[in-house]
Amino acid sequence: xxxxxxxxxxxxxxxxxxxxxxxxxxxxxxxxxxxxxxxxxxxxxxxxxxxxxxxxxxxxxxxxxxxxxxxxxxxxxxxxxxxxxxxxxxxxxxxxxxxxxxxxxxxxxxxxxxxxxxxxxxxxxxxxxxxxxxxxxxxxxxxxxxxxxxxxxxxxxxxxxxxxxxxxxxxxxxxxxxxxxxxxxxxxxxxxxxxxxxxxxxxxxxxxxxxx
Length: 212
Known about the structure:
Helix content: 55-70%
CATH topology: Growth Hormone, Chain: A
Structural class: mainly alpha
Mean pLDDT: 85
Low-confidence stretches: 1-6, 9-22
InterPro entries: 4_helix_cytokine-like_core (IPR009079), Somatotropin/Prolactin (IPR001400), Somatotropin_CS (IPR018116)
Order of helices and strands: HHHHHHHHH
Distance between the termini: 32 Å
CATH class: Mainly Alpha
CATH architecture: Up-down Bundle
GO molecular function: hormone activity
Shape: elongated
Number of helices: 9
Subcellular location: Secreted
Number of domains: 1
Family: Belongs to the somatotropin/prolactin family.
Pfam families: Hormone_1
């Protein structure tokens, strides 16, 4: 399964590079493909979060940090679709790329931590985290290509360094709780990325906002 995903990601980037180089496919089609990839990323992170929900003990929920402490919370982003519709195409792509880049290091932490996670589906979770990394990398490469076609403002990226520890806990409960928290932060940001790209896709396809 992992082999097929790897090949699929390579194909996704290869196609984007080819069409960007020759200009054979319009930006609307490139955005459509990127939107599909971001939707997969959000769906996978949502499934992972649900896998963990039933195995967090009551004390774990009490220990869980608040969403406002996610390392990307300092980035000013639209709170809803109506606000997102007010932003320019360049700003939306810049926000999506900033959020995605901010998760390069934390996804490595999640991948390493998944190997020692005490959970009945530990192996499956570990494999899905690797898929998240794969999809995130391929989407990031695709958005880099798109930003090059949309101008300097779309290429601007806000720095959102991850300052958390590589060791997410000393015992099984704290590890599971902190793993869930970090994954929940990623799920929230993947939803934002997907929403921004969907707005861009609709604009490029000249669809009415209510159809998006």
